[in-house]
Structures are given as C-alpha cells and as structure tokens.
Amino acid sequence: MNKVVVIDAGHGGHDPGAVGNGLQEKDITLKISTEVAKRLNTNYEGVKASLTRSTDAFLELKQRTDLSNKNDADLLVSIH
Description:
The chain is of the alpha/beta class. It has helices spanning 25-43, 61-70, and strands at residues 3-9, 19-20, 23-24, 47-51, 75-79. The longest helix has 19 residues, at 25-43.
C-alpha cells in the first residue's frame, strides 16, 4: 500500500511571494517541490508523491487542500 504525499509549491501566478536579487519565491518553491516529488518517487518504495502545481499557476488555499484530499493524501507538505 502506497503512502501518498502531496507537495505544495507555495505562491504562483500573480502571487510571487518574496522577491529579491532577481529571484521570486514562487519560482524557487516550484523547483524545490518538483525535485522533492521526483526524489520521493524515485528513491522510496511505497511512496507516491504528486504536486499541487507543476506550472506558474496561482491556487487558492482551498484548491490546494482540495487537491490533497482528492488524492487521499497521507501527508501534505507546503513549501515556502
């Protein structure tokens, strides 16, 4: 039986999060979230990781938790 982990990349779309030195938090959280999901799926048997967003899209908090619930997540990790 797989454990389902939903990784939420914070911010996105019109919400850049923190901005400085030419960087936007939304871009960093997406890169980290994508890598975390990839590593969980590759390196751990019995773990299925998915993302709340895989592009630069804005999701309301309810949409993020709805996705987690729809996937019957055992764990939701929000990266900020």
